[in-house]
């Protein structure tokens, strides 16, 4: 039998090893010069302001980076997870919200988040989170500086008349102020109030220490008084229940409601249905909506005043308006029954031919922005106002309360059409002074069209009618 021996395994020649090494180095250099994010064309030297960061070596943070990048292993294996080599891969600064990575684990830029596969609304949310984070960091730094300044303002006593323990003077880190500063910094400023130096903290019987403690107590009492006054001043400037209490004039200016009690009564109706998980309290959402209705303030100004985003202001306003409509209109806009209407009819309606009056009706218009659609723009344009408007039919009782209000119609719609199509006629009964089709009578002012002058009877009736019709103009105003 012939036996064959296998040739021993030999390493490739040195020229092949050098070629493989050269190819690996070229690939690594290529990846260093380019961003490894899918769809990103940034290259080193293309834009000098762009920075390139290595994939972190920390296992947990590296896994989060790889998950955020969402790069496939290859074009053939798009479902397999990409594992970066030890060297040769960089990520550019365009994939971070602020344009650079952060080493703070609480920062949104600790992990890259701006990529082509991320939708635009999500990118805007992430930018808002970074703004919130930066504001909080700035507030923390300001509070640290305040504590440092307070510590400097109260220097430790250096009198040689007061021995401390074994005769050695305490170091800077051993003073109560410095220790409190260190604890406040480590606890992320959980407490902003400096500790009060009592007699049991610095026990000394010398006259110098006694005077020093007395001056510190007086200064602490002055700071407490100033703190109370500042809190009261802040409460007066912030819109809340306490700042508006017993201030009916301010309530009327901001909301249009006459008194604080009426403001809170309406608030009790709508409060359970407002957004609880919001950056504003329910009362602040309620005040935001009333201030917009009363003074027509812009969303940008309200966003600046309440320190929130203008988009959030728009969403809160729309939600509050819907809640007010669903809660208040069914309970406050009520059609009265005939008997109670006749018993409480005002004296001005009892004289003349208005004793059967049920309601006073009129249409009013509200300006709005020009709609983008041509059909809606044509339907909303009012030739009477020479502007795009929305029109409503409103009816009030002779007593002055609103008893009917229609849905909105385009400003081009005629008053007659709205009256016929708004379900107003279904509330009328035979004998009411309103519309003939319902066996009722409609009282309207006389017109001079086709006439040179009104008859004396028509003129007198128009005067009486105008004196009563003015009430609905006041309600609309």
Automatic annotation (TrEMBL):
Which segments does the entry list as coiled coil?
206-233
> Which InterPro entries does the record associate with it?
HARBI1_dom (IPR027806), THAP_Znf (IPR006612), Transposase_HTH_dom (IPR027805)
PANTHER family named in the record: THAP DOMAIN PROTEIN
Q: At the top level of its lineage, which domain of life is listed?
A: Eukaryota
Q: What are the recorded GO MF terms, alphabetically?
A: DNA binding; zinc ion binding
Q: What is the lineage of its organism?
A: Eukaryota, Metazoa, Chordata, Craniata, Vertebrata
Keyword Zinc assigned: yes
- What's the cofactor? a divalent metal cation
Q: Which residues form the THAP-type domain?
A: 31-115
Keywords assigned by UniProt? Coiled coil, DNA-binding, Metal-binding, Zinc, Zinc-finger
Query: Is DNA-binding included in the keywords of this UniProt record?
Result: yes
Please give the Pfam families that the UniProt record associates with this protein: DDE_Tnp_4, HTH_Tnp_4, THAP
Q: In its UniProt entry, what is this protein called?
A: THAP-type domain-containing protein
């Amino acid at each position: 039998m012939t036996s064959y021996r296998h040739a021993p395994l030999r390493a490739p020649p040195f020229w092949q090893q050098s070629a493989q090494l050269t190819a690996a180095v070229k690939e690594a250099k290529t990846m260093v010069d380019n961003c490894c994010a899918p769809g990103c064309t940034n290259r080193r030297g293309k834009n000098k302001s762009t920075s390139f960061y290595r994939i972190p070596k920390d296992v947990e943070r590296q896994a989060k980076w790889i998950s955020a990048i969402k790069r496939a292993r290859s074009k053939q294996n798009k479902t397999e997870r990409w594992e970066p080599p030890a060297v040769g891969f960089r990520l550019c600064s365009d994939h971070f919200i602020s344009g650079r990575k952060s080493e703070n684990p609480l920062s949104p830029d600790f992990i890259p988040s701006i990529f082509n596969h991320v939708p635009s609304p999500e990118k805007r949310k992430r930018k808002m989170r970074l703004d919130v984070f930066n504001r909080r960091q700035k507030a923390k730094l300001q509070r640290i500086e305040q504590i440092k300044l307070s510590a400097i303002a109260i220097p430790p006593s250096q009198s040689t008349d007061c021995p401390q323990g074994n005769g050695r003077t305490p170091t800077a880190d051993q003073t109560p102020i410095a220790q409190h500063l260190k604890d406040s910094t480590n606890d992320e400023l959980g407490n902003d109030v400096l500790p009060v130096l009592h007699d049991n903290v610095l026990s000394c019987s010398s006259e110098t220490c006694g005077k020093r403690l007395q001056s510190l107590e007086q200064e602490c009492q002055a700071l407490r008084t100033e703190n109370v006054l500042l809190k009261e001043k802040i409460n007066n400037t912030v819109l809340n229940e306490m700042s508006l209490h017993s201030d009916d004039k301010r309530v009327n200016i901001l909301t249009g409601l006459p008194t604080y009690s009426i403001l809170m009564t309406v608030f009790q109706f709508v409060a359970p249905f407002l957004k609880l998980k919001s950056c504003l309290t329910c009362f602040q959402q309620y005040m935001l909506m009333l201030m917009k209705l009363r003074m027509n303030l812009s969303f940008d100004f309200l966003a600046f005043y309440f320190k929130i985003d203008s988009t959030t202001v728009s969403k809160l306003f729309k939600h509050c308006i819907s809640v007010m409509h669903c809660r208040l209109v069914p309970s406050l806009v009520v059609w009265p029954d005939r008997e109670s209407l006749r018993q409480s009819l005002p004296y001005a309606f009892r004289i003349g031919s208005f004793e059967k009056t049920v309601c006073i009706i009129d249409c009013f218009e509200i300006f709005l922005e020009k709609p983008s659609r041509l059909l809606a723009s044509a339907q909303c344009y009012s030739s009477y106002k020479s502007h795009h408007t929305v029109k409503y039919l409103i009816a009030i009782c002779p007593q002055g309360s609103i008893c009917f209000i229609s849905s909105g119609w385009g400003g081009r719609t005629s008053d007659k059409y709205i009256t016929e199509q708004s379900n107003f006629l279904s509330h009328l009964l035979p004998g009411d002074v309103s519309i003939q089709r319902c066996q009722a009578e409609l009282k309207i002012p006389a017109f001079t069209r086709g006439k040179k002058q009104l008859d004396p009877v028509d003129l007198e009736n128009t005067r009486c009618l105008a004196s009563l019709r003015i009430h609905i103009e006041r309600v609309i105003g």
